[in-house]
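pasting Small ribosomal subunit protein bS6 for the record, 147 residues
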Amino acid sequence: MALYEHVFLARQDITPQQVDALVEQYKGVIEANGGKVGRVENWGLKSLTYRIKKNRKAHYVLMDIDAPAPAVHEVERQMRINEDVLRYMTIAVEKHEEGPSAMMQKRDRDDRPRGEGRGPRDGGDRGPRSDRGDREDRPRRPREDRA
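structre below
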């Protein structure tokens, strides 16, 4: 059997429980056709770069699939029919990644506290610049008279 990574986007106005129900429905389709689903990651509700079918946000879900090609074709066929699924993409891979995906690692990185150990340009202290003195400390420029 072949290995796949499958990502789908569900409409923004459905609940997380309905997203989980969609995952279970598609898991059942894959298992009924002789495949199995490994890791399932729900990346949550994220903003879309552009509107898709009048939606500005979508629920993102990643599934690692080990299944024959007809099982994947059946899941994709059912996703085309389902109005709650905005987009999907299936990619054949050599092997599944261990641990959390890059999106989940990014979320962990974003959970760090802000401002610690950062310089003045990256959201740190916004005080006066240390390389410039007050106005009184600098010599005045000669003024040019204009006619």
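The beta strands are 2-11, 36-52, 55-67, 85-93.
The chain has a mean pLDDT of 83.
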